[in-house]
Design a protein that fits this description.
Low-confidence stretches: 1-6
Number of helices: 13
Number of domains: 2
Largest sheet: 6 strands, mixed
CATH topology of the largest domain: Rna Polymerase Sigma Factor, Chain: A
Radius of gyration: 22 Å
Helix content: 40-55%
Mean pLDDT: 90
CATH architecture of the largest domain: Orthogonal Bundle
Structural class: alpha+beta
């Protein structure tokens, strides 16, 4: 590592814990980095459960490599290096962690392994929270998945975390020239994937929902609970992008076709017409959590979570996820 710096408190404490094999002190020091490392792994992998596993793998590797840390770099830098390479090793072994072709009017592909990221698990550090929204939103996470793994790592280290080329090269055991070339190629792909989004991800951006977004979510929930199909239709753009993951079949459809499709699939029909909904946020995006009560059930049971991308007062993208069997979302199973 090349960071020119004095030995900090964390670094000194970590070295002392490593030398004494003090597992409790080691855990105390490293645990404070868990949330930001998990977000980093999520950006690399687009899957919350994988990110959890790889964060734990990172800590195992850190413990096994503890004696190699000499404090020449910040502990945070060293941890990110290990986490990044753990993710790269994971991706090298998995052939099911790449986007698959989508049947869309325009060329595209789907990330079927995408999972939502609960906001309550995001880092509490103010600076990370400021930049997190646009680099944790679903569209950004999906776009990053279209980069080859090492190019993806370069892009995240350089353009999201703001690392200098030399530091990224050292972490990935590449030359500075290779890092620069990979970053240039990654930026081209990201512009293709996100043509309507800003491309300066390191500058501050608000992470708060707007009043417009809150109003649309409230109207979406009201319409859902009242089985108001016209009301739902009025909230959707006529070029709505809709997906229900992990099922394949992302589509760009009109508002009417979207609602007609939901009805023909059984929603808002008898047995699927008694809804209660709550609002939440995942990936710094507004979301509605849908609970369904069937005729013979006294309780409303967790059904799906609809993550909404809202543009000019209309829902431009609706990504649905099966919300059952995902305790990490922190949602009550019944209402």
């Amino acid at each position: 590592m090349t960071d020119a710096r004095l030995l900090g408190d964390d670094e000194a404490a970590f070295i002392a814990a490593a030398r004494s094999n003090d597992a409790a002190q080691f855990a105390l020091i490293t645990e404070r980095y868990r949330r930001e490392l998990q977000v980093h792994c999520y950006r690399m992998l687009a899957n919350y459960e994988d990110a959890q596993d790889l964060t734990q793998e990172t800590f195992l590797r850190v413990w096994n490599k503890r004696e190699s840390f000499k404090g020449h770099a910040a502990l945070r830098t060293w941890l990110y290096r290990i986490a990044t390479n753990a993710c790269l090793d994971f991706l090298e072994k998995r052939n099911d962690r790449t986007p698959v072709p989508a049947e869309l009017p325009d060329p595209g592909s789907e990330v079927l392994y995408l999972q939502p990221y609960p906001d309550r698990m995001l880092p509490e550090d103010p600076q990370e929270s400021v930049v997190a929204r646009e680099t944790i939103e679903l569209a950004f996470i999906v776009a990053v998945q279209h980069l080859p793994p090492r190019q993806r790592a370069v892009f995240i280290l350089r353009d999201v975390l703001g690392w200098p080329a030399s530091k990224a090269a050292d972490a990935l055991e590449l030359t500075v020239a290779s890092v620069t070339s990979a970053l240039q190629r990654a930026r081209v792909t990201m512009r293709e994937q996100l043509p309507d989004r800003r491309l300066d991800w390191r500058s501050p951006a608000t992470h708060e929902l707007s009043n417009d977004e809150r109003g649309v979510v409230k109207s979406y929930i009201d319409a859902h609970e009242r089985n108001d199909l016209d009301g739902l239709m009025s909230l959707l753009r006529d070029d709505l992008r809709f997906a229900m993951l992990p099922e394949p079949g992302t589509s760009v459809i009109t508002a009417k076709d979207a609602v007609d499709g939901w009805v023909s699939g059984g929603l808002f029909q008898r047995g699927h017409d008694d809804w209660r909904c709550i609002t939440t946020t995942v990936n710094r995006m507004p979301a509605a959590v849908l609970y369904l009560r069937t005729p013979d059930d006294p309780e409303y049971r967790l059904f799906t979570i609809a993550v909404l991308h809202i543009v000019d007062g209309k829902i431009a993208e609706l990504t649905g996820f099966d919300a059952t069997d995902k305790p990490w979302l922190g949602l009550p199973p019944t209402l």
